Amino acid sequence: MPKQKVDQKDILKIALQMTREDGFESVNARKVAKRMGFSVQPIYSYFSNMEALKESVCQEAMRFYNHFIYSRVDKDILLDMARANVAFAKYETNLFKLLFLQKLNGLNSFDDIYEWMGDKQATKQLSEKFSLPEEKIKDVYIMLIVFTHGVATMIATGGANICDEESAVILEKAYNAFINS
Amino acid sequence: MPKQKVDQKDILKIALQMTREDGFESVNARKVAKRMGFSVQPIYSYFSNMEALKESVCQEAMRFYNHFIYSRVDKDILLDMARANVAFAKYETNLFKLLFLQKLNGLNSFDDIYEWMGDKQATKQLSEKFSLPEEKIKDVYIMLIVFTHGVATMIATGGANICDEESAVILEKAYNAFINS
DNA sequence: AATGTTATATAACAAATGTAATTTAAGTAA
DNA sequence: TTACTTAAATTACATTTGTTATATAACATT
Fold first, then answer.
1. Tens of pLDDT, residues A45-82
2. Residues in A touching B177 (Cβ below 8 Å)
3. I need a labelling partner for B172 at 20 to 30 A (CA). Which of A109, B8, B82, B96 fits?
């Protein structure tokens, strides 16, 4: 048999790259094939259909997101995460849209957000720094996430022209407001 | 000549209704025609192409939004507007997505948000109630809008299962936090 | 070297959608 | 009544995209 020229990883890599550059909707069989320099056929030998490929792209995007965020978390975990999310919305707008404006895992309450996004270290750090009760920490956490999501969404949908400094300032203001409330 | 059976308003009305029920992407010539009980031809006599129709639908949607919001503003203007926006995201999810997750007029800074959404009465009421400096009012206004947008977006994209009371509570918490910061 | 297997290429089909061409027929004016 | 105008219906064509059927050719096995 002929040696395999195409690898599943290559397909995913290219599809993810296309999503980053031109948006998730731009991912279709012919365009992926063209960018690989191959025909569409190999796509269908690795994925049962385009839906399956797209689902895999979503998972890749989520990994990319996690790496993006965690690589930017330093001293002040919660605030760093907030800043990183805004940066993600600004510099990876198409991935942000895919992950947070189209597919968001169904949440049933704000507590779910906490469960879902909840970062043990972040809450620990917060409680050590400010010695606030558990319930209060949770509130600050949820509210900053919601606020951050507001900033990020506005940046992702509004044309991405709010400068990094300005968004950093407003995030910090919100953070302090929530802590001190 | 035969009497005109179809009216431009009818087309827009139905296209807006379809957007509300099934999303903006569901609006296409054949579906609109089918729901009107006519052929696609009248659409093209009133609109140069589908793009023009869709642009008009956007404008209709914006009018619908404004009416939705202002009909819910009562005593506490700013907080009422926040609650109304969240309700819009929950009960008019498809319109919310169209207006705020796809087409948002390009904003260049958070001050632009204030200029764009800024409600004279709301700021006046706020300054009378709390006697805060102009600059502070503006900050509260912007931050509550951003926070509200975070809540609304999460509801619109997350499956809309956060109850009205819960979102009301968190909005008020944020409002107080911003006022008292 | 001949044959079979299979990865890839090519080409074709199907469905959805926008849009234009053509036809039909309702009402008007002569 | 007849011919004309035009709103609407019908039909047809183009494009895009997913998908499959067939063809080709590279490699393994004999």
1. 999 999 999 999 999 999 999 999 999 999 999 999 99
2. 143, 177-178, 180-181
3. B96
